[in-house]
Every structure is written in structure tokens, then in C-alpha cells.
Automatic annotation (TrEMBL):
Coiled coil: none
InterPro entries according to UniProt: Acyl_CoA_acyltransferase, GNAT_dom, NSI-like
Organism: Opuntia streptacantha
CDD domains: NAT_SF
Pfam families from the UniProt entry: Acetyltransf_1 (PF00583)
Entry keyword set: Acyltransferase, Transferase
Protein name: Arylamine N-acetyltransferase
Source domain of life: Eukaryota
Enzyme Commission number(s): 2.3.1.5
Amino acid sequence: MLRHGIVSAPLRTTHLRLAPTHLRPPQTLTISAQLSTPSYTISDNELLSRGFALHRTTEGLNLDHLNSVFVAVGFPRRDPHKIRVALEHTDSILWVEYVKTQRPVAFARATGDGVFNAIIWDVVVDPNFQGVGLGKAVMERLVEELLQKGITNIALYSEPRVLGFYRPLGFVSDPDGILGMVYSRKQKKKKS
């Protein structure tokens, strides 16, 4: 699925010092525009009040606990060393910790070229915490982070049963007839 939409880059306040002329003293012209704060379905403060902490780095992320969430949602168990390598090559990460247990309960990450394209991977929410908005909280923030970087071509892979989750977040299947392809090594049949 790809995300389509209008991207607005953050605008900053700029101060320009006008050169003095013989008719007037030096002046400072301030040009400013405020970027509206992203509107999330659940605010960071509301998440915290419910006992959830947001994290944007791998610091404090227990990979064995994350692996347990992967398995709980039907992903295969992964080698923790390979998870660590994947995370080292990840451009953006967002995960939610249930403070009471200090365990990850929601997770998503994105890789890409840092300029034009990104792919979102491993979007998971512990089944015990599904339905309370954690998946949407993670995705809204991850997409916003990518857009703030100027990345507008954002893709993800999804199982058909959860496509409906991504559509309200701006993702569409096969936009403009574009279809994704995946390399597949098929094993040759042995001759008997």
C-alpha cells in the first residue's frame, strides 16, 4: 500500500535585517509561519495517563520481549541478533511500552533512502492491547515523522485482513494501477 496526500514541510521563523538607507534607520523584518501541531487520535499525554510510554529509539527495548509480540501476532520467531541488525539499519522507529510491565506492546519501523522513499515494516500490537488505539498511535506518529523529513512515497506490506486499518491513515492499495512485486526464489524440483 502507498500513502497519498499533501505534504507540508515545517516553516520556521526567519529574521531579515534590511540594509539601512539614507532615509531610514535599520529595520528587522520577521517572517513567520506556524506549523500546526500534528493532531493525533490519542495525545502523548493521554497515552501516558493510560500507562503507556512512547519511544523513538531502541534504548530500553528488550528484543526478546519484542520477539514475543511478533510471535503473538503470527510473525515467525526471529533471531535476536538479526533483529538488532535490522534495527541498526532502521531510519525511524516508534514503540510503545506498557509502563507497568516495562514491556513493548506496540511497534513499527521504517527504512528507506532518507529523501524520497520509505517502507514501513513490522507494525504489531500485542493482542492483549489491541483495540485501544496503540496501532493508530504508532502509525500516525511514524508517518508524521517521515513526512516531516520530506519523504512522500511511503509504502508498506499488509495482510489483506488488516487493510481496513491502514486506509483511514491515508494508505491506498495499488494507487494508479501500481502493483508491487516481490522477488521469490522457487526451489527447483529434483528429477527422480
